[in-house]
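[step 3/7] inverse_fold.run input=structure_tokens len=518
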């Protein structure tokens, strides 16, 4: 529909020189929560992910395996997507920068910027970090002269002919843009970093390489290939039709949200908007630089070799447990930590003992004592069972936290203001005992608890999509699962029919949502 609001979001694209680690997955899950939330709220969403393939690392890794670079990239793209599907990442498109659509758009873009006078030829000499595949200034390096992100790979001095992007010309325009768009860079700490960087002065950027067979040729000088960072950023526009489908591009651009790691903020918040301005295009509306996941206090990276792969956790626990842990324990705007011990503690406390136990108790009691049918509940309003914080306020707080990418705080609200009080209510009323003496009173308690499970299922839909759907479809709620929105937690149609349990039991037992780990 023409009046349907649209929402275009992206993640950073990943080097496929090895499989993704849990820090990479942290970013994708955070973006997925946002995409699922926006769909729930009625937006037409386009969620783009992909792989960054035109790199020296990729060509080198392919050669080590005796493969052509494209063959290697296609194989790795399949592996990445298998992992993202295992984690229920609901991306709409996955772009590979080796695709023709990307090459076509990149060549069109760089030609446009060149024609607009923002690219010139020269010679560059400086310190080059192989890990970042970028040149570094002295202020980018630590006291030992090493890149903070790749301390085990000393930068090397390089000199080469190149084409420069005249980034220095855009300093004043960028500062004005930041002033006019105060929400462009988030969180605030990242905004302050970028403001300080730009205010201190910008240097022109080397945007080409020579002597490389793998990559995208510069249209106005074919002996050069486009430098990976200039090329990679363009996936955000080539993925929605720039250079290949004008109508599609006009529909989706500018992006509403780029989700990236904090280590590449300056590329996305200084270089990227300047590139777009140079081409006469509008910058994205918001860039969110999330924190890192650490393992025993050390940043996880392929270069450091301290990788934990997502499938290790998914196989041992579940994809939903994976999603919950990283969104609850690792603040998206800041940094988090992972350990197997802490993962098991959170899993048992929050998922098995709290959410899972409440669900199993309620389903089992209704099934065993009421034949799965709470008679005479059609049209009944749930009772007031707890709390001094009204449900509507809680839901609005959850929504505000999700929109600000404060996912851990959103989950904290759901647990502390809905699930915990519901469990305390159950412990106080003890319906497992009450069914033996007063079926009518126990029925009201169970009806109230089902209402809390309905609320929890709706609120958890962006975070734990499979678990939330299982809970919701375990009862005959009148509203279709596909149509529920957050406001339906407190504004919803009454049960036109008596409440029934639809979940099946095996030998009188409920299949646990999260089997406890002993």
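[step 3/7] decode complete -> sequence:
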């Amino acid at each position: 529909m023409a009046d349907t609001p649209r929402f275009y979001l992206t993640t950073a694209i990943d080097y496929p020189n090895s499989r993704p680690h849990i820090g990479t997955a942290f970013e994708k899950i955070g973006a997925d929560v946002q995409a699922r939330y926006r769909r729930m709220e009625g937006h037409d969403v386009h969620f783009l992910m992909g792989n960054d393939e035109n790199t020296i690392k990729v060509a080198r890794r392919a050669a080590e395996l005796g493969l052509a670079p494209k063959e290697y990239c296609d194989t790795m793209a399949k592996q990445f997507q298998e992992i993202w599907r295992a984690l229920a990442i609901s991306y709409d498109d996955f772009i590979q920068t080796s695709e023709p659509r990307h090459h076509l758009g990149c060549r069109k873009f760089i030609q446009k910027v060149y024609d607009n006078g923002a690219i010139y030829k020269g010679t560059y000499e400086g310190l080059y970090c192989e890990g970042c595949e970028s040149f570094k200034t002295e202020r980018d390096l630590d006291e030992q002269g090493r890149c903070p992100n790749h301390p085990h790979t000393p930068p090397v001095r390089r000199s080469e002919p190149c084409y420069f992007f005249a980034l220095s010309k855009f300093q004043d325009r960028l500062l004005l843009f930041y002033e006019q768009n105060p929400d462009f860079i988030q969180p605030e700490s990242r905004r302050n970093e970028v403001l300080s960087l730009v205010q201190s002065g910008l240097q022109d950027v080397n945007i080409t390489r020579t002597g490389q067979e793998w990559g995208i040729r510069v249209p106005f000088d074919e002996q050069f290939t486009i430098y990976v960072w200039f090329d990679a950023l363009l996936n955000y526009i080539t993925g929605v039709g720039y250079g290949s489908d004008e109508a599609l591009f006009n529909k989706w651009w500018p992006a509403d949200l780029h989700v990236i790691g904090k280590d590449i903020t300056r590329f996305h918040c200084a270089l990227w908007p300047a590139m777009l301005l140079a081409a006469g295009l509008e910058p994205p509306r918001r860039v969110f630089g999330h924190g890192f996941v650490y393992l025993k206090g050390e940043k996880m990276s392929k270069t450091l070799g301290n990788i934990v792969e997502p499938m290790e956790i998914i196989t041992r626990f579940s994809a939903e447990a994976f999603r919950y842990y990283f969104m609850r324990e690792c603040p998206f705007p800041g940094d988090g930590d992972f350990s197997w011990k802490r993962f098991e503690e959170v899993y048992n406390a929050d998922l098995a003992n709290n959410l899972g136990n409440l669900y199993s108790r309620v389903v089992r009691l209704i099934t065993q004592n009421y034949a799965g049918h709470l008679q005479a509940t059609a049209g009944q309003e749930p009772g007031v069972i707890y709390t001094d914080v009204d449900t509507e306020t809680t839901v609005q707080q959850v929504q505000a936290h999700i929109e600000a990418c404060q996912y851990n705080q959103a989950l904290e609200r759901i647990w502390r203001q809905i699930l915990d009080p519901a469990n305390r209510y159950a412990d106080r009323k003890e319906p497992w005992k009450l069914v033996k003496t007063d079926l009518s009173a126990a029925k009201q308690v169970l009806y109230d608890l089902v209402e809390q499970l309905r609320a929890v299922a709706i609120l958890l839909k962006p975070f734990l999509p499979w678990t939330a759907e299982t809970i919701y479809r375990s009862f005959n709620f009148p509203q279709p699962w596909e149509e529920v929105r957050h406001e339906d937690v407190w504004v919803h149609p009454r049960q036109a029919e008596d409440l029934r349990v639809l979940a099946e039991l095996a030998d009188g037992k409920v299949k646990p949502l999260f089997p406890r780990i002993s």
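[step 4/7] annotate
The longest strand covers residues 119-129.
The mean pLDDT is 92.
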